[in-house]
Specification:
Layout: H1 3-31, H2 36-64
Length: 73
């Protein structure tokens, strides 16, 4: 995975999905949307899984650098 793909996925996992999850749960509770908890839990699970996979990818990448931090993650 190149840096651009990693950066996009990281932004999705750290910013977009948590914001979307919060927005959905808030609006669903206000407006009585169906399946509010199920959809919110699904989004949270996807966010957690993506974050874990990106964390593993980052650790593996750092190992290939020999533990040296070149300023790119």
């Amino acid at each position: 995975m190149n840096n651009k793909v990693y950066d996009i996925l990281k932004w999705i996992a750290l910013v977009a999905l948590p914001a979307i999850t919060t927005l959905w749960l808030t609006l669903a509770n206000i407006w009585g949307f169906p399946y509010a908890e199920a959809i919110g839990a699904t989004l949270a699970a996807i966010t957690t899984c993506l974050g874990a996979l990106l964390g593993i990818s980052s650790i593996q990448y750092q190992k290939t650098l020999g533990g040296k931090d070149n300023g790119e993650t």
